[in-house]
Design goal:
The protein is an alpha+beta fold. It is 45% helix and 16% strand. Strands 1-2-3-4-5 form a five-stranded antiparallel β-sheet. A hairpin with a 7-residue loop joins strand 1 and strand 2. The longest helix has 16 residues. It is elongated and about 55 Å long.
Amino acid sequence: MDKMVASCPIPSTRKDSLSAAIEALSVSTELVEEELKPYLDTVLNVAIERKKGIAEQVAESGILPVLAQILRRKSTLTVHTVRLVAELARDAPVKEQCFDTGIVSALVTLLLSQDQDLLLYVSQAIARICYDSNLQQERFLRLGAVPRLASVLLRHSENEALRSSFLLALCNLSDMGEEDASTLAWEEGAYFSDGERVFRGTTRYLFGFSSAVTVVRLRKTNGQYSVTVEVLQRCSTLLWGAHNGRHAGHHLANLTHLGSCPKLYKVFKCSVKNIPRNRNLRTAVFHTLL
């Protein structure tokens, strides 16, 4: 489930303009691209403000197939439309319809684009649609999202914003990600073997006592991508020492509530159709053909 987000009702004047924009988009086949852009911008602005009821109104309006059609056209409206989808995909009423309306398949196709701004919004949309949803994760996996995400990530890893967003998308596809990319600080690690790239993301928890370290390893061999996502829990040495001082002689099993300190891990190897949902010590390995 997505986290609850404080939002304000849509003022009547904004509601009227939003309703008009949605109605215009619903008959978009009668309009040219220049006429559609203002309506897309209207819906986008309301979506960015996270106004209460926008997701439900869009989902009930039937314009999601229209947005998917615009994405497939690859026109001057593509970037605007992908950004709109990325904003709307934060909320369950929209994300639940993204597959049946054709948006998911359109997003996977757009991963072949060379436009880095477009790719950023595409990865945000994918990450949000599949966050905490096994059903959406499996749908993206079946459509071949992993090799395309990995290919773009390796090609544009110097773009910090793009790198962060694509890594989050891969983590969310493995059901081991976060709702928001800003919660993870990524850095590229050392090379451990030829052809392997390693990225580490750190998530700080309350008071800085503990953190989660997400490790993403990418390797391309013989025309195949191998993507490994692993999440480790760790805590500060001060907290670890204090706990040991109070519980001298206790077995390590008694410390599991500290998030597995010091660093311990267990590796789960699985197919893309059987992703584990262990929230503490987790690893998913994707093997997918190009």
